[in-house]
Design a protein that fits this description.
There is one protein chain. With about 170 residues, the chain is of the alpha+beta class. It is about 35% helix and about 15% strand. The protein has five helices and four strands, in the order H-H-H-E-H-E-E-H-E. A four-stranded antiparallel beta sheet has the order 2-3-1-4. The longest helix is centred in the last third of the chain and has 15 residues. The relative contact order is 0.16.
């Protein structure tokens, strides 16, 4: 079988171990990267250098936390779909994404019978608080055409795991 994918990234076994270590729970201690390096089987200095290299080589785009929002007290969340004029999309997305209650903000192509092109995920302690935040975002941006989809049940809350088959 011929591999013609020119975008394929070749990683060494130690690199894959480092990436697997980064995907696990982040140690809550004074030297978390030392613990992660130990999990990967390398020293801390090498671990940190490889992570910096991954970022500069675009092998890693971001490192982020997954908040278990219900455990943190945010009992209500809503996906809000907004109908934003394309010429104002960047400006309005910047305003919405800057709001502390918005965890995700992204644009999508509208579909037939669904003109919404900007989506925000909003987390709050109650449904009423979600509604207030949505009203505030509407006032701040002037966008009045939107649909709110409240979460009923959380089915999955995990991040993508890479190289799990290599363990």
């Amino acid at each position: 079988m011929c591999n013609s994918n020119s975008n394929e990234i070749n990683l060494s076994v130690p690199d894959k171990k480092i990436i697997r270590a980064l995907q696990e729970d982040f140690p809550l201690c004074e030297e978390p990267y030392k613990i992660l390096a130990q999990r990967a089987g390398v020293d801390e200095e090498e671990f940190l250098q490889r992570v910096k290299d991954f970022v500069s080589e675009n092998k890693i785009r971001k490192l982020g936390a997954v908040l278990q929002h219900r455990t943190a007290g945010f009992k209500s969340n809503a996906l809000c779909a907004w109908n934003v004029s394309p010429e104002n999309l960047n400006e309005i997305a910047a305003i919405m994404s800057a709001h502390a209650a918005v965890s995700h903000c992204y644009d999508r192509n509208p579909a037939p019978n669904w003109n919404y092109n900007l989506y925000t995920m909003i987390h709050a302690k109650s449904r009423e608080e979600c509604d207030k935040i949505i009203d505030e975002l509407s006032r701040l941006t002037g966008v009045t055409d939107f649909q709110v989809l409240y979460s009923k049940k959380e089915w999955k809350k995990t991040s993508m795991k890479y190289f799990a088959e290599d363990k």
